[in-house]
Every structure is written in C-alpha cells, then in structure tokens.
Amino acid sequence: MMQPGKDSLDVGMIVSDIERSREFYEKLLGLSFQGTMKLPFGTMYRFLFGTSQVKLIQPGQQPPPAGAIGLEKQLGFRYITFYVKNLSELCSELKEKGVQFTVSARELAPGRWIAMVKDPDGNIVEFVQAP
To answer: Residue 99 domain-assigned?
Structure first.
C-alpha cells in the first residue's frame, strides 16, 4: 500500500503552446509559478495550487498529436479538478475573459457546485465548491 508523502496529487500535461497555457493557468486561474526544469524531452513549468503542482511540459520537438476532446471521447485521465471557495466569482471572471465553458456553474448535489472549462489544448478543467 502507498503511504502519502503529502496531502495532494500533482499532474503533468504536455502542452502545444507554453505561452497560451501559462496565460490560462497562471494569469486566468492564478496558479503560482514555481520555476522551470529541463527534461530530456523538453522543459517543465511548475505551478502551485495549494500543495498540488500543475506541471506544464513544453516538448523540445514538435508536440505530439492531441487526443479526442471531451470527457467521454477516449480512455485515460480526462480532467483535472480544482476545489475553490469562490466559484461564482471565478466563473464570472472567466466568462468575461472569453473562456469556453463545457459545463456552466450548476449545483450537482445539495451545496456542491461545479463548472467545467477547456484549457488552450482542450483539456477539461473542473472547478468544485463544496461546503
């Protein structure tokens, strides 16, 4: 059995355009930039959200082809979830900035609100506010 080394998970994503992805995750969502790391196949840009890291990887060569966009379109990891305290405010800000929603803010269960958007590569980003 695994024993957690911290109380969160990290996620890594290969991106097609690091500047567009940085604009989305750092400027629009407010993740804190932590630095870069050279990898054998590109450069990793690390961002912090709570104790979780979002690692955006710009490949050194041509980016690989994108997979199907949408939750139900293919197997594998399909979305990332951010638990937030200000869902309504966040959704208003993102709408004003032209971010495309796949699921508008809605109450999924009593007191549990969600919304979903697409990042620049079409990855699904979910926001959850729960009591």
So the answer is: yes
